[in-house]
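Project channel, design review

CF: Before we commit to the Methylocystis heyeri constructs, I'd like one complete example in the thread so the newer folks can see what an input/output pair looks like. Taking Large ribosomal subunit protein uL4.
RD: sounds good, go ahead.
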Amino acid sequence: MKIDVTSFDGQAAGSIELSDEVFGLEPRADLIARVIRWQLAKRRAGTHAVKNRAEIARTGKKMYKQKGTGGARHGSARVPQFRGGGRAFGPQVRSHEHDLTKKVKALALRHALSAKAKDGAIIVWENAQLAEPKTKVLKAGFDKTGVSSALIIDGAALQTNFALAARNIPLIDVLPVEGVNVYDIIRREKLVLTRSAVDALEARLK
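CF: and here is what came back for Large ribosomal subunit protein uL4:
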């Protein structure tokens, strides 16, 4: 798959051939959804908790006599039926994380990249560098090229000026190639890759 290479403000900078092994698959929504579910579950804190009837600080004295009241037979004010009582089957502290094999995660990443390629939502830049950390300059380039929601993937390390300029722009995420993941790719409209990011991804996923 051949794609044009540009600068962040839309100036032509040649072309590049994208590998069909990484960018040319028929996207599988089930794989992508499976990995997104794994990512979101992994980052959940799992610190939600309620008190059950054993943890409620109330007297253990029987509320009223067993018979003769004409009402139901109750022996504790800590039960879930009463206001201020314990919660039945409420959430407890736990981990929501579940396992996923490396092969599935790598395959889903290829399918996410292929999904963007199929939609024509991949942009390749020569590099992601700025002479000075000016958000106004970067925003002007995005406005010129019509980029409003994008994940930008650079090489092994981000240029400090570019990262500082981009962090104030809504719906724009910037990551080094080691941080690329399915969820961030799918949640933004465009995927912007630098030449070095393309080389690194193809070397990693082929």
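RD: helpful, thanks. The mean pLDDT is 93.
CF: The chain has seven helices and six strands.
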